[in-house]
Amino acid sequence: MKNPDELRRENEMLRERISTLSAAILRISSSLDLDTVLQDVLESARTLTGARYGVITTVDGSGQPQDFFTSGLTAEKHGALVEWPDGLRLFEHFRSLPEALRIEDFSAYLRSLGYAEFKWCRNLHATPMHRRGEHIGSFFLANKEGGQEFTDADEEVLLLFASQAAMAIANARTHRQERRTLADLEALVETSPVGIVVFNAKTGAPRTFNHQARRIAEALHMADLSPAELLESLTSRLADGREATIEQLQNAETLRAAEVELSVPDGRSVRLLINVTPGRSEDGEVESVVVTMQDLAQFQEFEQQRMEFLGMVSHELRTPLTSIQGATTTLLREAEDLDRAEMREFFRILDEQADHMRRLIKDLLDVSRIDTGTLSVAPEPVEVSMLVEQAGTLP
């Protein structure tokens, strides 16, 4: 039976180990940055066991190597470990181990596996990390201080610590993925050709403006008004002439492809095509309102250009048609009074104007093919002098 002094010392050592373990768990749980968590796991594991060196490796969902960190190694030893030719084979070997492994003579262990000699540690403790049956990675501790071997007590505390480390790493990975997804979404929203504004459903205050929405807002900007005051001063009118306040647009359950004109007191205005979609929480409460807006000015400009183009085409087509109609009318009504030369002249006019119309229609079809990207071009050599001569004959 142990005497009271021995029991007291063992209790003190147990309390100290539990305290150190608790501090280590708190440390690795205090950050969501993956690199920080991995480094903290490694430093904490060394502290728990008094190991001089530490290495941590992680794998992704398919089991491929992902992260690699060391602790306590010089830059030279770190580089040598990275460049060691059998490093990947040893990693795969340890990855297949179902439980913790203590190695008293690392060099002898390498020889037993047939690996190249690599003297970077004397003894080694390998601890796998699992979460919900998934292998997250492993950490390796080497050369315990004082030349001691790793003990059963070390292994017990490391197994407890490994389960918490796996959870902390999984949380940090999830956080990193969420941040990447959010960054991708923010980039998509910012570069969208459609204006996007997200409003707080409770206060009505805008939370997010993308680049296109800011451009639209700048067209209505008033130097003496803040963005909130500008929103209050806006007048909105639907396509049917009804006036709608900004609050009504924000509170709309859904609004699809509504044409709205926004104007400010000094008379400036923009015409927009807007969609309104509420963002709901898990319990169904509206938390935000997403408004997308498309400036119709460009479309109005396109429509104006289209009308001008149609007017020009109509004029160009009307000219040969008038000539053709005049010639055919004369031939039908006065054919008996016309001599052979006059008849040939009218037929020449018909043929010439028909060719003119054919060229116009061909040009219109070419424009359509250019717009759709289906115009085929067959390059061929041509005399520049001929092109100059042809250009000189144009009206």
Characterization of this structure:
The chain is of the alpha+beta class and 395 residues long. The protein has twelve helices and twelve strands. It has helices at 4-28, 34-49, 75-83, 87-95, 106-113, 152-190, 211-218, 227-233, 246-251, 297-334, 340-372, 384-393, and strands at residues 51-59, 65-71, 101-103, 124-131, 134-144, 195-200, 206-209, 235-238, 243-244, 255-263, 269-280, 286-295. A seven-stranded antiparallel sheet has the order 7-6-12-11-10-8-9. Helix 1 (4-28) runs parallel beside helix 6. The chain is elongated. The relative contact order is 0.06.
- Round the mean pLDDT to the nearest integer and report it: 82
Structural class: alpha+beta
Rg is 40 Å
Helix content: 40-55%
Write a short abstract of this structure.
This protein has helices spanning about 5-30, 35-50, 75-85, 85-95, 105-115, 150-190, 210-220, 225-235, 245-250, 295-335, 340-370, 385-395; strands at about 50-60, 65-70, 100-105, 125-130, 135-145, 195-200, 205-210, 235-240, 245, 255-265, 270-280, 285-295. The protein is α+β, with helices and mostly antiparallel strands and about 400 residues long.
What tags apply to this protein structure?
395 residues, 12 helices, elongated
